[in-house]
Amino acid sequence: MARHGLMRARPAELVPGAVRVITARLNYWPGGREPGEVLADAKLAYISRYALGRDYHKVLRARLQVLAERIHERAPHGYRVFTDSAPVMEVALAAKGGLGWRGKHTLLLDRSVGSYFFLGEIFTDLPLPLTSEVSPHCGSCSACIEACPTGAIVGPYRLDARRCISYLTIELKGAIPEPLRPLIGNRIYGCDDCQLVCPWNRFAKSTEVPDFLPRHGLDGVELCELFMWSEADFNERMAGSPIRRIGYIAWLRNIAVALGNAQASPEVIAALQARANHASQLVREHVEWALARLIEAE
């Protein structure tokens, strides 16, 4: 964010000549195993529901490219397509475009479908008519703030990303801070808690995009099974998935933390001990922490 500065808020600096942004959303709710059941079972791995299928960057960007080309056939224009792929203020733009309002958890909300959707944009030099914003409907509800496992939502519309489990398990490159590890539970890639408790997500609809449906049983697979994947297994099974971008080492780091939060059992202890001498110091550190935590609990 520091590197790109105010370019985020100045579309014409990102795409010279841009005067409008066409915003779009695509529902991803994949169905599958009930999230609450997975979160309540410490033996299982919880993966954010958006990441259970194919990489949304590829799916949504391809669809937006087709749309931009069709517009170009009718009205030639200069354009560029984005899907969480550049310094773009996606939620703010979508809110300005009337696709919903920013909820207290900072995500976009819509009264008819909740928040389980991806956002994408077409920056264009066409002087299209403007659309109106919609009014917010969070009211006095604070369910998302209260539900955050790490207290990352520090106030309405304010998120401390350094405490967010999505940041800790996906974006963070180094060690996960020790005080936050017990709070992560069995979440190994992202977190949905603030969305799961949102009343507006009662109206969420299952996706009609087959690419977003769960792959490899990731909607409720056991942690020990995933922890024993080789790097070749990870690269093969996560091909085409957004999960692959964190890399194998971060994958093991995250699972080690989740195993440290599980109940001690011969299977869990054996899985961790099998990685105790891993070549990566990062993995070894988190395995040592997990083993020490389980031994202390016993």
From TrEMBL:
Statement: the UniProt record of this protein carries the keyword 4Fe-4S: yes
Annotated Gene3D superfamilies: 3.30.70.20
GO biological process: tRNA queuosine(34) biosynthetic process
MF terms in GO: 4 iron, 4 sulfur cluster binding; epoxyqueuosine reductase activity; metal ion binding
Domain 4Fe-4S ferredoxin-type residues, every copy: 127-158
Keyword terms, alphabetized: 4Fe-4S, Cytoplasm, Iron, Iron-sulfur, Metal-binding, Oxidoreductase, Queuosine biosynthesis, tRNA processing
Name by which UniProt lists this protein: Epoxyqueuosine reductase
Species in which this protein is naturally found: Azoarcus indigens
